[in-house]
Amino acid sequence: MILFDRLMVSEDGKKLLIDTHVNKAEHFNNIVIDKVIVKTHEQVSEADPLSAEDENIYEYIAPDNSKELHLVLDANTDFTTNLGNLSNKLLFVYVVCKGIVDPCTSCRLDEMTTLGVTFDTFKMYQNVLGYTKGVVDSCNIPKEFIDFIILWNGFKAAIETEHYLAAISFWKKLQGDKEIVNHQCGCHG
User: Fold this and answer.
1) What is the pTM of this model?
2) Contact between 96 and 112 (Cβ < 8 Å)
3) Residues 79, 85, 90: CA angle, nearest 5 degrees
4) pLDDT per residue over 93-113, tens digit each?
5) Residues in contact with 101: Cβ distance below 8 Å, sequence separation at least 6, in sequence order
6) Which 3 state secondary structure label does DSSP give 147?
7) Which of 3, 12, 16, 25 could form a disulfide with 73 if both were Cys (CB 3.0 to 4.6 A apart)?
8) What domains appear along the chain, each with residue ranges and CATH number?
């Protein structure tokens, strides 16, 4: 029932931008946005990754009758802890609605909480450009680039299919989490 018009981390990693609105279809006429909650990947519960009720780094109560929101959150001032930079964070943004859903609303569209996931895409593209520059310069494909491509595609598939715990695991590997990477042999063949 919620649509994200923009959900992204700024290129400098200092801001989280959230533009969202309630679906404009007739079924959602009596629905408004209640609140927005933000968590990092470290705060998402293994028991229930869709739960927005545990530890949060940000919570915003929407004004009455809000059908849309436009938020720009500063990493240094708007969160419960000073994050400094969002570039190494996988962010889970929960938009919680309230109201009465039309009984003819399709399954899954009647859920009162919508989850969006975002991260610093600019940083990821910089990584890709670094690898492709190496390929252009040497005409060799580094094993690390193959690993990156496989992890990146696994991460995207996990997000798209709502397998958030798997996505977090892929995210940590993409960030070079030494504890996880050292226990793996690598993805390449």
Assistant:
1) 0.86
2) yes
3) 80
4) 999 999 998 888 888 888 999
5) 1, 27, 28, 30, 31, 110, 112
6) helix
7) 16
8) 2-119 (2.60.40), 122-181 (no CATH)
